[in-house]
Amino acid sequence: MGNSNRKNVFIVGAGASKEFGLPTGPELTEIIRAISSVAARRDQIKTASKESLLYAIRRLAAERDPDKPDINGFYGAARIIANNMQLAPSIDNFLDTHRDNDYIVNLGKLLIAITIHGAERSSHLYVSGGNIYNTINTNDIKDTWIARLFGILVSQRDFHEFIKALDNITFISFNYDRCIEQFFLHASKSYFHLDSSKLNCVREALNVIHPYGSLGQLEWNHPIDTGFGADLHPAELVASSKKIKTFTEGADSEIISAIDESLAGSDLAIFLGFSFLPLNMKLLLQDKKYSFDRVIGTGKGLSNESRKIVTEEIASQMTEGSKERISIIDGTCSDLFYEHYRYLMK
Question: Which pLDDT belongs to residue 340?
Answer without folding.
Answer: 96
